Amino acid sequence: MPILTYNGQQYPLHTEKTLLENLESQAVSVEFHCREGHCGACRSKLISGKVTYSQFPMAYLRGDEVLLCCSKSEENITIDAP
Questions:
Q1: What letter would DSSP give residue 59?
Q2: Are 37 and 55 in contact (CB under 8 A)?
Q3: Given pLDDT bands bounded at 50, 70 and 90, which one contains residue 56?
Q4: Over the Cα atoms of the chain, what is R_g?
Q5: Are 6 and 79 in contact (CB under 8 A)?
Q6: Would the pLDDT of 38 be above 90?
Q7: Which of 41, 50, 51, 76 is the most exposed, fewest CB within 10 Å of its CB?
Q8: How far is CA 12 from CA 2, 51, 70, in A?
């Protein structure tokens, strides 16, 4: 099973869930609002790994940022919250 590393803590990564859903299932508190990629509240820095979006998010993203609410990954991934 792939691993999600968030702010230095490791969690199992369920590839069928969004990154936000993965963190919520581990009782990790994450700031979010829309769950659809519009607001950018869950914007986080991607340290390593790749994500996919079912629909490209509307919120502005820099090259090293991801939105946890609408992204998924199938490989080990490391993310830091702002």
A1: S
A2: yes
A3: confident
A4: 11
A5: yes
A6: yes
A7: 50
A8: 6, 16, 18
pTM over 0.90: yes
Q: Which amino acid is at 31?
A: E
Phi, psi of 5 (to 5 degrees): -105, 120
Residues 54, 52: Cα–Cα separation, whole Å: 7
**Fold for the domain defined by 3-80:** Ubiquitin-like (UB roll) (3.10.20)
> In the 3-class helix/strand/coil scheme, how is the chain assigned residue by residue?
CCEEEECCEEEECCCCCCHHHHHHHCCCCCCCCCCCCCCCCCEEEEEECCCEECCCCCCCCCCCEEEHHHEECCCCEEEECC
Q: Positive or negative CA dihedral for 56, 30, 24, 4?
A: positive
The residue behind tokens 């963190």 is 23
* 53 Cβ neighbours under 8 A, 6+ residues apart: 37, 67, 70, 71, 72
